[in-house]
Design goal:
Chain lengths: ~450, ~450
């Protein structure tokens, strides 16, 4: 199963630092955003429940929906080789039934009200999320709470779901984009949790036992390792009440554990340079070319945002212009930056016809070399900032992206920045910041993954 | 380039029928939705400009963004074999430069404000759309108006973009899902415009000349064949003023043409039964199995919506339960209904491992046979209605989906239903409606498309 300008955000009083340890039973207002006329547009609050479960809500003006996401601090990088794929397997199994609800009951509950209900597993976290009309929020909280705290993991369900996951892995193997990104991770991080595919392999999924998955569930699905994030038309106290009830099953909300601190690392794990290829009977060649980037907590991430935008973040970017507009070499070409607690990468993704590969690689490397030497122009700096500003504000209009922002901030960052603070940090990026960073990043040896005929 | 309940909708005064002919210069309020306290939550208005250009806006309370879409009544089904792919080729070319703006100017304009800016081509229409912060709307209107009325289509641009499109076609050829759907259309509609892939083929794209595309542009991109739809935080009169200026280039808004009427057909074109296969070196087999459905204007589309939901519209649906939950035969299985002016289809899409294909097809056919014999249960009827209600309201919270709703309604439907009217029609669906429709649809011979090893 699978985020304005100042006018738009209004006045903000920020108290964003969500530093730990947090006292059990405490409730705190992390952010308040008021409109020009003084009414509250948005308010972010956090309560810590017994067991260390954090409930973070954002009350949004003008919407009639609500989105809940339960963020669990476990993902594929927490897996030993023997447990490879366990996080994702477990995510699937939590939909298969609890002591109170069958798999069909779980499906019916949110289908019947038209809710969007799904989950996804990443390298550093797993998220169960639902978007519903505001008055159906208590239902959504109850269903997800039941799944998280009360799942059965029967042997029959493990066997049926094993087949479903093997089919999912086969589907990813048929998607050239998934294949090239998995291949890149394999080259960059080797045989480590960060280098292995999230869903596991045919061999690892076939080998996993119910007992292993059950132990993994008990070990990682603890209240202190979890954040319940809710955004939309809501009342914080009511949400806390609902969460207390829904997650109170089986003594889940007991004990004096403090919320687990986010993993923060100043040291960046290095990518292993080199080229890796896979042969597939495809029309196109799919390529990812990358170098070390910056970690999630690195302040240079804002400068990297601007740099990434200038290199390949839009249709006015250097790569789009040089590769597609001027030369017609590819339909899809863009750059991206990804961040982990202790690693990061910046890369370029492109798909082209096989006979254009050399030319595409020449153009891409040439553009990276130019930006490493000369940085970006003042015009690109301003455009990049505008693009990040507008994209940030446009991307936070719906309850789903607000939920993700506060949930992820609580689980994996050491602070929740207000939108105005993020905008200020973007505005603070200088030409020198970008030039220094580009020179450092693109002087590194490349990691190259190629999939094609 | 690439694509509630009463409480939530408030009180609606509906005057939705957008029947033609519409007088040039006229402005009409099509819908007004008020909240419980009497304030206007949403208002849909339409003005017809000289030349027959329709401007439809929906003013939304509580958002700070706006989304514009220019809907042009031309798509791949308007193409002769010699023009196959011309609609999509032209869509690409309109981004390549006008007499006032270079391709780079076009890209820079919306990138610099963080706007989302793209276009897509379908079988019956082409849409150019942008989502921006409300104060950037005049800029977005100006850029798109310039592209639509003032593009150059230079020979150099035609050649460069030809390569980009060939690369896009190769990308689609590598996507199992695109391949199986194109194959299904080929079997169902044969060598007709509806049966051919939207982007064209390598041969047709290689053969298209600048002169052909230019004639196609002049013929189809006329004011009367176009709807400008805008939703978000806006003022209708201001939008009409901006559109008048942006689209007033080159005498575009001249003449007494009335808006072109939507193509409505009571007669449904029949799918050609049979099986079509394509061999690819894939891990999975991808299958689409379908029969004739109903046209876009057919009142039975609401009953079909409920039926489709019960068969394969969610995780509680029969197919998800039988194929995935109970038997673990596939990761992805769902049903869908698609509608054209004079054709429609209802089908099932599934991807599975090759050795499970026969079993999957048995289960799917068995479920369709059962629903043809016995219809659905009262519980499924209620759940299906709830699912459509919730999905409808949740799906209309953002300016983009509102823009699409009013734009498409004006271009291809004969009426704009208020949300409450749609909800009433959903509520009006009976068990008998669904049973009668299921018996009729699933007694028809099937069209089957299979792609795999």
């Amino acid at each position: 199963m699978s985020s304005r300008n100042n006018r738009a955000t209004g006045q903000q009083s920020s108290a964003g630092r969500s530093s730990v340890p947090q006292k059990v039973g405490s409730t705190r207002t992390l952010l308040t955003v008021k409109g020009d006329d003084g009414q509250v547009l948005s308010r972010v609050r956090r309560t810590v429940l017994p067991g260390g479960l954090r409930v973070v809500t954002e009350q949004m003006a003008g919407v009639r929906s609500a989105c809940i996401g339960v963020w669990v601090g476990v993902g594929s990088r927490d897996e030993t080789p023997a447990l490879h794929g366990a996080s994702h397997f477990l995510e699937h199994l939590l939909f298969k039934g609890t002591r109170e609800r069958s798999a069909m009951d779980i499906s019916v509950a949110l289908d019947a009200v038209g809710g969007e209900f799904n989950a996804f597993t990443a390298k550093e976290y797993t998220c169960f999320h639902a978007r519903v009309l505001d008055h159906d929020l208590p239902l959504a909280v109850d269903v997800i709470g039941d799944m998280i705290t009360n799942s059965q993991l029967t042997s029959e369900d493990v066997e049926a779901e094993r087949d479903v996951i093997l089919d999912e892995i086969a589907m990813h193997d048929d998607d050239p984009d998934d294949v090239v990104h998995n291949l890149f991770a394999e080259q960059a991080y080797g045989d480590t949790p960060l280098g292995r595919p999230i869903a596991g392999t045919e061999a690892s999924i076939t080998a996993l036992t119910r007992a292993q998955i059950s132990r993994f569930y008990k070990h990682h699905y603890r209240a202190a390792n979890m954040v319940v994030a809710v955004a939309g038309n809501l009342d914080h106290a009511a949400v806390v009440r609902d969460v207390r009830k829904a997650f109170g099953r089986n003594g889940f909300l007991r004990g004096d554990d403090l919320p687990r601190s986010p993993k923060i690392s100043a040291v960046s794990r290095k990518l292993r340079p080199g080229t890796i290829t896979a042969t597939r009977a495809l029309e196109q060649v799919n390529v990812v070319l990358g170098v070390n980037g910056v970690t999630r907590s690195d302040e240079r991430r804002f400068a990297l945002g601007v740099l990434n935008t200038a290199i390949g973040g839009g249709t006015s970017s250097r790569l789009f212009q040089e590769v597609r507009e001027h030369r017609g070499l590819a339909y899809s070409v863009f750059s991206f930056a990804s961040h982990h607690a202790d690693a990061g990468m910046v890369g370029v993704s492109v798909g082209c016809l096989p006979d254009k590969l050399d030319q595409v690689l020449d153009v891409v490397r040439d553009e990276l070399r130019k930006v490493a030497l000369d940085g970006i122009t003042a015009e690109e700096l301003e455009r990049g900032k505008g693009q990040l500003r507008g994209g940030l504000v446009l991307g936070l209009e719906d309850s789903g992206s607000r939920m993700s922002r506060i949930g992820k901030a609580e689980l994996v960052h050491d602070e929740l920045l207000s939108i105005d603070e993020v905008l200020a940090r973007i505005d603070g990026v200088t030409l020198d910041d970008v030039r220094t960073l580009a020179a450092e990043l693109f002087a590194q040896p490349e990691v190259l993954a190629i999939v094609g005929p």
